[in-house]
Amino acid sequence: MDCFWKIEPLKDSSEFNHRLLVKLNLSLSDSTEFVEVCADNFLIRNPQCHRLDTSDVGIENKLEFTVWQIPGLPYLDKIGPVYIWYHRELSPQEIINNPNIPRQINFNYEWRGECKCGDVHLKADKNNWNVLYSPDHPENYCPSMSCSWLLEAPEGYYIVVNISEFYTEADHDFLALFDGNDTNQKHMEMLSGMITFKNTIHSTKNIMAILFNSDISIQMGGFAIWYRAVKNDELLQNQQSTELSSDNSSSPHRLFLFMFFTLFAVIGILFIIARSNPTNNRFTTIENIFRRIFPTAWTRMFNENEEEEEGGGEGRNQVKNNFIQNL
C-alpha cells in the first residue's frame, strides 16, 4: 500500500521567507512500514527527505522545512510543495498472525513566516511540559525582534519554568520574566548572554509574562523554555528539595576552601617569622617558629630538659639534633 499527500505552498503571502512545520503521529507495527516526508518531488535525485519507521512510533515527530517566496516575481518563485508518502508492504507473517493490525498516521502542518514570534497566549499544562522556543529556533533568531508571551496556568496553579538552552548576544539581547501579566513591574529575571541554569524559575501567580528583545547587530542561538503548571504544595516541595540538594553539594566546597585558607595563613605566618630573623641560623629560625606556633609544647619540652641544660646544655642540644633530623 502506498498513500501520498501533497502540501501546497502559500500563494498570496506577502512574506519573503517562510517556514513549514509538519507534526506527525504514527502507529506502525511492521518493519517494512515507513512514512517519508520530502521537500521536493520523490522522483528527483537526492530530494530533501525525512524517513520515519517503527522506531518512531508513539512519539510526535516535528519536521521543519524552510522555503522561499519572492512576492511579485513569479519567475523567481523557489517555493515548492511538500510531499508525504506512507508505504506498507504485505508481510506473510502478518497474514498468519493477525490480518487486521491497526495502523494510524495523522499529521498537521503550519506555514509560518520567518522572524515571527508565534502565539502570544500559551497554556501551561498540569500534566506535561510544553516548550517555548525563540523565533526560528534552532536557527539563530532575527535582528530587531520584540516578542511577548503570556504563560497561563489553571486557577490555583502556578507556573514553573525550566530553561534548558539560553544563548543571546550579551548585554544587547534580553529575555525578561515577570510574575503576572504586568510587564511594567519589576521583573523576576533579566537574562542575557550564554547561561546554564541549574534551578527552575517559578511564579506566585497563575500567569507569567515573558518579553524578548534583540538589537540589529548580532544574533545567537536563542532559547528553549520548558513550562508547566504546578500546585502550591508541589512547588514548595520542589523548592525544599532543590535547596537541600544545593546545601549538600556546597558542603565539600566549603570544607576545601576552609582548609585552603588555613594552610595559606600558616604559610604566611612562617614566611613572616623567617623574614624577621634573617641573621639567625637554620635551627634558630625553626626554633623560633616552633616556639611561637606551639608555645605550650615548647615550654613543656624546655622544662623536661632544664636540668640537663644546666649541666652543660647536652639535653637542649639533643632536642635540637632530634628536631633537625625529623625535618
UniProtKB/TrEMBL annotation:
Superkingdom assignment: Eukaryota
Residue ranges constituting the CUB domain according to the UniProt record: 117-230
Transmembrane annotation, as ranges: 255-274
Any single Pfam family the record assigns to this protein: CUB
Alphabetic keyword roster: Disulfide bond, Membrane, Transmembrane, Transmembrane helix
Keyword flag Nucleus: no
InterPro entries: CUB_dom, Sperma_CUB_dom_sf
SUPFAM superfamilies associated with the record: Spermadhesin, CUB domain
PROSITE patterns: CUB
Protein name as catalogued: CUB domain-containing protein
Organism of provenance: Meloidogyne incognita (Southern root-knot nematode worm)
